[in-house]
Amino acid sequence: MRTIDWRNDRIVLIDQTLLPGTVKVIHVDTVDELIDSIKRLAVRGAPALGVAGALGVALAAKNGDDVREQAEKISKARPTAVNLSWGVSKVLAKLDQGTEAMIEEAKHILEDDIRRNADLGRRGAQWLIDRLGPRINVQTHCNAGALACVEWGTALGVVRALQERDAIGHVYLDETRPLLQGARLTAWELQQMGIDHTVVVDSAGPTVLARGLADAVIVGADRIAANGDVVNKIGTYPLALAAHRAGIPFLVAAPESTIDPDTPDGARVEIEIRDAAEILGEHTPDGSKALNYAFDVTPADLVTAIVTDERIINGKPLG
Ligand code: MRU
């Protein structure tokens, strides 16, 4: 089933906070409910956030809300993934054409997400096969699978396309502290796909690469700056450094909507800092502080290539 969808004039989405134990579908009838779902990561992952933003503006129009005001609120629900404000502004641009036109645009973005991610997955798989041969072991981070999109996935979409070609070996995945998008969501998706996989703690990711267990790293992105810097889930940057040291490709898989030509470099991207309570717990002494960065910046020179639904970018200006 789709991660997020529009049915009977409302948004439906899988509550990802409950996975893998419970598959629960939530019905979202108001913009406030949507914003709550985005903030607590019931819906998450850059392309899915783009679709959520688009559907949220359509929902505001359908509910007779002040659409501009609600659009602004949705855009700010999470700051780092550019897809969220991208999806919002695509549908807001249809405001003059009325509610039906806005709903149609949001549904178009939703359908397009599936097609575009399937395209980029197949392009990325071909790129890897051309360089690494017919059987490839990979390392990934966080969840850039179907759950981070409407269907199919970006980084895990490349893995899916490798599987179509009988070219996927083993997948290593970081558990992705503190909310475990890797251990909970990516492992669940790989299990459903019937792909051999191994979960490691985040700090073991570089060791997996140093020991030659993976032939390439594939990750998604939340925002790609104009100079090619890649912003993705915290823990991506150490993997890029380790891939560089190990001399293996570091591939970023993302739709064109993740490229932000208005942000010159990664240093200008707002990095979401989430609640310290996600890190602190019974294991930490009372009074300890936590700094819960949700994303990091991988400098462009550590990225071997970016595969999108339209092109492969390696070393050339993004345009
Ligand atoms: O905090 P999350 O779970 O929304 O972070 C998601 C990621 O960092 C993904 O790697 C990224 O959005 C790409 S998803 C195709």
TrEMBL record:
InterPro entries referenced in this protein's UniProt entry, alphabetically: IF-2B-related, IF-M1Pi, IF_2B-like_C, Initiation_fac_2B_a/b/d, M1Pi_N, NagB/RpiA_transferase-like
Site feature: Transition state stabilizer: C142
Residues of the signal peptide: none
Catalysis: reaction(s): 5-(methylsulfanyl)-alpha-D-ribose 1-phosphate = 5-(methylsulfanyl)-D-ribulose 1-phosphate
Pathway(s) served: Amino-acid biosynthesis; L-methionine biosynthesis via salvage pathway; L-methionine from S-methyl-5-thio-alpha-D-ribose 1-phosphate: step 1/6
Protein name as catalogued: Methylthioribose-1-phosphate isomerase
Biological role stated in the UniProt entry: Catalyzes the interconversion of methylthioribose-1-phosphate (MTR-1-P) into methylthioribulose-1-phosphate (MTRu-1-P).
PANTHER family reported in the protein's UniProt record: METHYLTHIORIBOSE-1-PHOSPHATE ISOMERASE (PTHR43475:SF1)
HAMAP family registered for this protein in UniProt: Salvage_MtnA (MF_01678)
Family indicated by similarity: Belongs to the EIF-2B alpha/beta/delta subunits family. MtnA subfamily.
GO biological process: L-methionine salvage from methylthioadenosine
Keywords: Amino-acid biosynthesis, Isomerase, Methionine biosynthesis
Gene coding for it: mtnA
Species per Swiss-Prot/TrEMBL record: Kibdelosporangium aridum
Residues at the active site: D222 (proton donor)
EC category name: isomerase
Binding residues annotated for substrate, in chain numbering: R44, G45, A46, R78, Q181, N232, K233
Molecular function in Gene Ontology: S-methyl-5-thioribose-1-phosphate isomerase activity
EC number: 5.3.1.23
